[in-house]
Design a protein that fits this description.
The chain is mostly helical. It has helices spanning about 10-20, 45-60, 85-100, 105-120, 130-150, 160-170; strands at about 30, 35, 75, 80.
Amino acid sequence: MDVKGKTKDNIKTTLDIAFFYNRKNMELVCDESRVAKPRASFVLDKNAQLLVYKWLKSLCFLDEHALNISRLVNTEECRLYGMKSYDYHVFMQTLIPLAFHDLLPKGIWDAVMEISYFFRDICSSKLNVDDIERLETNIVDTLCKLEMIFPPSFFDSMEHLPIHLSFEAKFGGPVQYR
């Protein structure tokens, strides 16, 4: 969403990409008089961001499923404020695949959708061993797809923890019972 102070797509990252990686679409563009950072394919333009925030503001959920989401949206500043952990779960597991479906390129949306569905499935109240083994193999591919899309500075140890969640679910059972 390209939030100032929160994005990891900055000049230092772009310089690192040029030095360490072979991603021509993410490198700095040098003209005669200036240097420009190209817009990343995963960053939404201002109109698309405003569209997402207006959509979030207009959402209405029944039975207090995500009652506060619409109250946490500031459409003037294009920001979300005061989200609690449950709001993040609802946003990541159900709203992200819907919100960005038509706004992101297909390859990027597919990877974001896969990680979203992984968390939805791993947090379900009933887990089968076959489903967990499928999640265990698919999450590696999903994280590889995300690493090809996002800059390396996005990834730290936290982005690699989902690999271990399926193992824990297999031996510890569903999350809510531990």
